[in-house]
Amino acid sequence: MTLNLRIGKYTDVGHYRENNEDKVEVKQLLTAQGDPFTVCIVADGMGGQAAGETASRIATETIPRELQNSLAGVQSEEDIYEALRSAAMTANREIISMGDLDRDFRNMGTTIVVSLWMRSLREDHLYLASLGDSRAYRLRGGELEQLTTDHSIAQALVEAKTISASEARSHRFRNILWKFLGSREMGENGPDVRTVDLQPGDVFLLCTDGVSGVLSDEDMKHILASEPDPDLCAQRLCQQALEAGSRDNVTSLVIAVEQS
Q: Residue 49: is its pLDDT beyond 70?
Protein backbone atom coordinates (compact mmCIF):
# COMPACT_ATOMS: atom_id res chain seq x y z
CA MET A 1 0.00 0.00 0.00
CA THR A 2 1.35 3.41 -1.01
CA LEU A 3 0.31 6.38 1.11
CA ASN A 4 0.15 10.06 0.28
CA LEU A 5 -0.11 13.09 2.57
CA ARG A 6 -2.17 16.17 1.70
CA ILE A 7 -1.18 19.08 3.94
CA GLY A 8 -2.85 22.43 4.60
CA LYS A 9 -1.93 25.24 6.98
CA TYR A 10 -3.28 28.55 8.23
CA THR A 11 -2.21 31.19 10.75
CA ASP A 12 -3.78 34.47 11.87
CA VAL A 13 -2.66 37.22 14.22
CA GLY A 14 -6.13 37.26 15.79
CA HIS A 15 -8.14 40.14 17.22
CA TYR A 16 -6.06 41.10 20.26
CA ARG A 17 -2.35 40.89 19.34
CA GLU A 18 -0.28 43.32 17.29
CA ASN A 19 2.21 40.68 16.13
CA ASN A 20 1.88 37.07 15.08
CA GLU A 21 4.39 35.14 17.19
CA ASP A 22 3.16 31.83 15.73
CA LYS A 23 4.97 30.21 12.81
CA VAL A 24 3.92 27.28 10.65
CA GLU A 25 6.17 25.56 8.13
CA VAL A 26 5.93 22.63 5.72
CA LYS A 27 9.15 21.48 4.07
CA GLN A 28 9.64 18.70 1.54
CA LEU A 29 13.38 18.14 1.52
CA LEU A 30 16.13 15.67 0.69
CA THR A 31 18.63 14.34 3.20
CA ALA A 32 22.34 14.67 2.49
CA GLN A 33 22.10 11.21 0.88
CA GLY A 34 19.14 12.15 -1.31
CA ASP A 35 16.28 10.50 0.62
CA PRO A 36 13.07 12.58 0.60
CA PHE A 37 11.28 13.55 3.80
CA THR A 38 8.45 15.85 4.80
CA VAL A 39 8.64 17.90 7.98
CA CYS A 40 5.80 20.01 9.38
CA ILE A 41 6.33 22.44 12.27
CA VAL A 42 3.98 24.60 14.32
CA ALA A 43 5.64 26.97 16.80
CA ASP A 44 4.22 29.47 19.29
CA GLY A 45 6.76 32.12 20.25
CA MET A 46 6.99 33.71 23.70
CA GLY A 47 8.72 36.81 24.96
CA GLY A 48 6.67 39.53 23.37
CA GLN A 49 6.53 40.97 19.87
CA ALA A 50 9.90 40.71 18.10
CA ALA A 51 11.33 38.26 20.64
CA GLY A 52 8.53 35.72 20.28
CA GLU A 53 8.55 36.06 16.50
CA THR A 54 12.32 35.54 16.46
CA ALA A 55 12.22 32.42 18.63
CA SER A 56 9.53 30.72 16.54
CA ARG A 57 11.35 31.71 13.34
CA ILE A 58 14.61 30.19 14.58
CA ALA A 59 12.79 26.96 15.42
CA THR A 60 11.08 26.63 12.04
CA GLU A 61 14.28 27.42 10.14
CA THR A 62 16.76 25.43 12.24
CA ILE A 63 14.94 22.13 12.69
CA PRO A 64 14.44 21.32 8.96
CA ARG A 65 18.03 22.38 8.23
CA GLU A 66 19.44 20.12 10.93
CA LEU A 67 17.26 17.19 9.89
CA GLN A 68 18.67 17.30 6.37
CA ASN A 69 22.04 16.27 7.79
CA SER A 70 21.07 14.09 10.75
CA LEU A 71 18.54 11.96 8.82
CA ALA A 72 21.13 10.85 6.26
CA GLY A 73 21.54 7.10 6.50
CA VAL A 74 19.02 6.50 9.31
CA GLN A 75 18.20 2.83 9.75
CA SER A 76 15.90 2.61 12.75
CA GLU A 77 13.21 4.33 14.76
CA GLU A 78 15.75 5.25 17.43
CA ASP A 79 17.85 6.98 14.75
CA ILE A 80 14.80 9.09 13.86
CA TYR A 81 14.22 9.93 17.54
CA GLU A 82 17.82 11.00 17.96
CA ALA A 83 17.68 13.17 14.81
CA LEU A 84 14.57 14.97 16.05
CA ARG A 85 16.03 15.50 19.54
CA SER A 86 19.32 16.74 18.11
CA ALA A 87 17.61 19.21 15.76
CA ALA A 88 15.49 20.60 18.61
CA MET A 89 18.48 20.91 20.93
CA THR A 90 20.39 22.84 18.25
CA ALA A 91 17.45 25.23 17.90
CA ASN A 92 17.38 25.58 21.69
CA ARG A 93 21.05 26.58 21.76
CA GLU A 94 20.57 29.11 18.95
CA ILE A 95 17.65 30.76 20.73
CA ILE A 96 19.59 30.98 24.00
CA SER A 97 22.69 32.31 22.20
CA MET A 98 20.73 35.12 20.54
CA GLY A 99 19.25 36.02 23.92
CA ASP A 100 22.75 36.19 25.38
CA LEU A 101 23.87 38.56 22.59
CA ASP A 102 20.88 40.93 22.70
CA ARG A 103 19.02 41.66 25.92
CA ASP A 104 15.84 42.43 23.94
CA PHE A 105 15.71 38.69 23.19
CA ARG A 106 16.90 37.49 26.59
CA ASN A 107 13.71 35.79 27.77
CA MET A 108 12.37 34.58 24.44
CA GLY A 109 11.26 31.02 23.82
CA THR A 110 8.87 28.98 21.73
CA THR A 111 6.79 25.85 21.81
CA ILE A 112 7.06 23.34 18.96
CA VAL A 113 5.12 20.43 17.61
CA VAL A 114 6.83 18.65 14.70
CA SER A 115 5.78 15.82 12.40
CA LEU A 116 8.24 13.89 10.24
CA TRP A 117 7.42 11.47 7.42
CA MET A 118 10.04 9.43 5.57
CA ARG A 119 8.58 7.25 2.84
CA SER A 120 11.91 5.51 2.28
CA LEU A 121 12.07 4.24 5.89
CA ARG A 122 8.49 3.54 6.99
CA GLU A 123 5.80 5.24 4.93
CA ASP A 124 3.09 3.93 7.28
CA HIS A 125 4.56 5.75 10.29
CA LEU A 126 4.62 9.39 11.35
CA TYR A 127 7.13 10.67 13.92
CA LEU A 128 6.13 13.43 16.33
CA ALA A 129 8.19 15.70 18.58
CA SER A 130 6.79 18.30 20.97
CA LEU A 131 7.78 20.87 23.56
CA GLY A 132 5.44 23.20 25.42
CA ASP A 133 1.68 23.27 24.88
CA SER A 134 1.31 23.20 21.10
CA ARG A 135 -0.44 19.92 20.33
CA ALA A 136 -0.92 17.11 17.84
CA TYR A 137 -4.20 15.22 17.41
CA ARG A 138 -5.36 12.33 15.22
CA LEU A 139 -8.88 11.75 13.95
CA ARG A 140 -9.48 8.09 13.11
CA GLY A 141 -12.78 6.31 12.77
CA GLY A 142 -14.69 9.27 14.14
CA GLU A 143 -12.59 9.44 17.32
CA LEU A 144 -10.23 12.31 18.15
CA GLU A 145 -7.09 11.43 20.12
CA GLN A 146 -4.59 13.90 21.60
CA LEU A 147 -1.13 12.57 20.75
CA THR A 148 1.06 15.00 22.72
CA THR A 149 1.24 16.00 26.37
CA ASP A 150 1.47 19.64 27.45
CA HIS A 151 4.58 20.72 29.34
CA SER A 152 2.57 23.08 31.54
CA ILE A 153 2.28 23.41 35.32
CA ALA A 154 -1.45 22.66 35.04
CA GLN A 155 -0.76 19.38 33.20
CA ALA A 156 1.84 18.45 35.84
CA LEU A 157 -0.87 18.95 38.47
CA VAL A 158 -3.18 16.67 36.47
CA GLU A 159 -0.50 13.96 36.34
CA ALA A 160 0.00 14.35 40.10
CA LYS A 161 -3.79 13.90 40.48
CA THR A 162 -4.04 17.28 42.20
CA ILE A 163 -6.57 18.62 39.68
CA SER A 164 -8.71 17.02 36.97
CA ALA A 165 -8.18 17.37 33.23
CA SER A 166 -11.33 19.49 32.97
CA GLU A 167 -10.07 21.78 35.73
CA ALA A 168 -6.76 22.19 33.90
CA ARG A 169 -8.51 23.86 30.93
CA SER A 170 -9.26 26.94 33.03
CA HIS A 171 -6.52 26.65 35.66
CA ARG A 172 -4.42 29.78 36.30
CA PHE A 173 -1.24 27.80 35.55
CA ARG A 174 -2.48 26.34 32.25
CA ASN A 175 -0.22 28.68 30.23
CA ILE A 176 2.82 28.46 32.51
CA LEU A 177 5.31 26.17 30.80
CA TRP A 178 8.16 24.29 32.43
CA LYS A 179 9.67 22.98 29.18
CA PHE A 180 10.10 24.83 25.87
CA LEU A 181 12.73 25.87 23.33
CA GLY A 182 14.83 28.64 24.80
CA SER A 183 14.94 27.12 28.28
CA ARG A 184 18.30 26.42 29.95
CA GLU A 185 16.58 23.86 32.15
CA MET A 186 15.34 21.70 29.29
CA GLY A 187 17.83 18.97 30.13
CA GLU A 188 19.45 16.40 27.87
CA ASN A 189 16.31 14.59 26.70
CA GLY A 190 14.90 17.45 24.67
CA PRO A 191 11.41 17.09 23.23
CA ASP A 192 8.97 14.25 23.75
CA VAL A 193 9.21 11.99 20.69
CA ARG A 194 6.84 9.22 19.63
CA THR A 195 5.73 7.16 16.62
CA VAL A 196 2.16 6.84 15.36
CA ASP A 197 0.98 4.52 12.62
CA LEU A 198 -0.76 5.85 9.51
CA GLN A 199 -3.91 4.55 7.84
CA PRO A 200 -5.80 5.89 4.84
CA GLY A 201 -8.51 8.21 6.14
CA ASP A 202 -6.50 9.46 9.13
CA VAL A 203 -6.49 13.21 9.68
CA PHE A 204 -3.84 14.85 11.87
CA LEU A 205 -3.96 18.30 13.42
CA LEU A 206 -0.97 20.28 14.68
CA CYS A 207 -1.99 23.51 16.39
CA THR A 208 -1.10 26.21 18.91
CA ASP A 209 -2.99 26.77 22.14
CA GLY A 210 -4.79 29.69 20.54
CA VAL A 211 -6.85 26.96 18.87
CA SER A 212 -6.78 23.98 21.26
CA GLY A 213 -7.20 26.18 24.33
CA VAL A 214 -10.52 27.51 23.04
CA LEU A 215 -12.14 24.83 20.89
CA SER A 216 -13.52 21.69 22.50
CA ASP A 217 -12.56 18.24 21.23
CA GLU A 218 -16.05 17.99 19.74
CA ASP A 219 -15.58 21.26 17.84
CA MET A 220 -12.25 20.14 16.42
CA LYS A 221 -13.54 16.67 15.59
CA HIS A 222 -16.52 18.07 13.70
CA ILE A 223 -14.38 20.38 11.55
CA LEU A 224 -11.72 17.75 10.85
CA ALA A 225 -14.39 15.22 9.85
CA SER A 226 -16.51 17.55 7.73
CA GLU A 227 -13.96 19.52 5.69
CA PRO A 228 -11.95 17.32 3.28
CA ASP A 229 -9.68 20.08 1.97
CA PRO A 230 -6.70 20.45 4.39
CA ASP A 231 -6.17 24.16 3.67
CA LEU A 232 -9.84 25.02 4.20
CA CYS A 233 -9.96 22.78 7.25
CA ALA A 234 -6.99 24.57 8.86
CA GLN A 235 -8.59 27.92 8.08
CA ARG A 236 -11.97 26.89 9.54
CA LEU A 237 -10.33 25.72 12.76
CA CYS A 238 -8.59 29.06 13.24
CA GLN A 239 -11.62 31.12 12.32
CA GLN A 240 -13.87 29.18 14.68
CA ALA A 241 -11.33 29.63 17.49
CA LEU A 242 -11.39 33.39 16.92
CA GLU A 243 -15.19 33.41 16.84
CA ALA A 244 -15.17 31.48 20.11
CA GLY A 245 -13.16 34.25 21.74
CA SER A 246 -9.50 33.26 21.38
CA ARG A 247 -7.33 36.17 22.53
CA ASP A 248 -4.14 34.70 21.06
CA ASN A 249 -2.58 34.14 17.65
CA VAL A 250 -4.14 31.07 16.03
CA THR A 251 -2.37 28.45 13.90
CA SER A 252 -3.44 25.07 12.52
CA LEU A 253 -1.81 22.53 10.24
CA VAL A 254 -3.87 19.64 8.88
CA ILE A 255 -2.50 16.41 7.39
CA ALA A 256 -4.88 14.11 5.49
CA VAL A 257 -3.62 10.56 4.84
CA GLU A 258 -4.81 8.86 1.66
CA GLN A 259 -3.97 5.82 -0.41
CA SER A 260 -2.38 6.81 -3.70
A: no
pLDDT averaged over the chain?
Answer: 92
Any idea of the CA torsion for 147, 108, 60, 50, to the nearest 10 degrees? 130
For 218, the domain range is: 3-259
Predicted confidence band at 38 (pLDDT cuts at 50, 70, 90)?
A: very high
CATH of the domain at 248: 3.60.40.10
**b (16+ CB within 10 A) / e for 65-98:** ebbbebbeebeeeeebbebbbbbbbbbbebbbeb
Report how many domains make up the chain. 1
**How far is 108 from 10, CA to CA, in rounded Å?**
23
